[in-house]
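Quick start: what a row looks like.
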Amino acid sequence: MGGEFNTIKPCRVGLLGGTFNPLHLGHLVMAQDAMERYDLDEVCLIPCASPPHKQGHKIAPGRHRLAMIEAVLEEDCRLSCSVIELERGGVSYTIDTVLELKKRYPQTEFYFIIGGDTLFELYTWKKIDKLLQVCLFITVARPRFDFEEINMGTLRLSEQQVEMLRSHVMVGHQVDISSTVIRARIAEGLSIRYLVPEKIVMYIAEHNLY
């Protein structure tokens, strides 16, 4: 399998993984913030098959989550999507995905994009030491993020790893939206307009999701 990315030449690609259950404007703003700050050629969205940190949570089938992402890609050529984790199946681990992508695209520079909250969970990720060696992490934090909170005690990583992560923390836009809130609003019969792209609003309604 190939062709995950829009650009053919060796380039700088941001990787944004998640359940995208569903994809919302917060995800897209984060992608844009990282793209502009680090001069990325594009950001590739990677929907997971089964997230290791959300076992037991009800997640919409991969085909629906992928279809919603693809609907948005039609409107923004700066975004792409990889089905690498959906095709692999099972629990999705970032280290496996990054190593496979580096193997397929050895000339491409990869930047893994995370939110500020995820920064403090990295120590629980599979083979995090190896992952930090092979891929640079970009942390998109919310305004008023306290940089003093990034230390060896809070991250539970080595001093060198902490400094590396700290040097690539950027302040993004304040977008207080979550997939959990969106699903809850749908369950309560409330509108999700202005929280997700209009095409996703229509897709969710058409397929009676959530």
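That is the whole record. Strands lie at 12-18, 42-47, 79-81, 109-115, 136-141, 169-171. The domain at 12-176 is CATH 3.40.50.620 (Rossmann fold).
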